[in-house]
Design a protein that fits this description.
Blueprint (H helix, E strand, L loop, with lengths): L2 H34 L5 H5 L2 E2 L4 E2 L2 H32 L4 H14 L3 H15 L6 H25 L3 H9 L4 H30 L2 H6 L19 H10 L4 H39 L1
Antiparallel strand pairs: 1-2
Amino acid sequence: MNKKTKQKTAFVIFRILGLLVVGILFWILGFILYNGIGVISWEFLTAAPTEGMTAGGIFPAIAGTLALIAGSVIFSFPVGVMSAIYMNEYAGNGWVVRFIRIMTNNLGSIPSIVFGLFGMALFVNAMNFGDSILAGSCTLGLLVLPLIIRTTEEALKAIPDSYRTGSLALGATKLQTVRRVILPMAFPNIITGLILSIGRVSGETAPVLFTVAAYFLPKLPESIFDQVMVLPYHLYVIATSGTDIEASRPVAYGTALVLITIVLLMNLLASALRRYFGRKVKTN
C-alpha cells in the first residue's frame, strides 16, 4: 500500500467517524424532539407545574436555570479572564505559575458533585447564604472557572509577541498594551470559554442539588437569597421520583427539549458575539 492509498484510507476512516458522531448527535436530538414536541405549548413554557408536576408548565424552572447561568457567568467570567491575564502577561513562567496551572487543571477534573458538597459547606453553611441563587451561582462559577482560565490563556498565547513589543516600543504601558491591544485581539477566542461554560452550567444537576434547587416551588424568586427550580433537577425528579412517573414522562421529554433549546440559543448568542468582536478586530 503506497502513501497516497494510505492517505485516502485514513481520510475515509476519519470521515466515517465524523459522520458517525454527527449521526449519533442527530439521533439523540431527534429522539428527544419526537417524544417532547407534543407537550410544548405556550402554557407549558409560561405556567407553573400542577398536579404533582404531571401537568401545567415549567416556567419557574426555566427562570431559575437562566438566573443561575447569568449568576455563574457574572462570577466566573471576570475572575477567570483576569486570572489568565495575570498568569500569561504579568507572572512570567516561574514555578508559581506552573503550580497554579497544574492546580487549575486538577480543579477542572474534579467531579461536579464534589463542587456541590464544597459549595454547600462554604456558601450555604459557612457564609450563611442558605440554599439560594447566590450560593448556586458561586458554586457553578467555581465549577467552570478552570475552563475559562485555560481557554483565555490559550487565546492570549495565540497573540504574537510582536504586537506586545511593538506597543511597548511606541510608549504604551504594560496595562495599556494588554487593555487596548492584546485583550481586544484575543476576545473573540475568549468567548469560546464562555460558550463552553454556559453549556456546562446549564446542564449540571449535582451542584444545584446541594446549593439551590427546590423539589417543587411553583413561583419565581424574589431575591438572590431564594431557592429556585432548575431544569436539570426538575428533569431528574419527574423522570425518577415523581408522583406518577408514567404520566409525567412526556413532561420529562418536553423539559429535556426546552433545556437543549436553551443551551443551543445561548451558544448561538455567544457565537454571534464572537463573530461580532472578530469582525471588529479585523476592521480595526
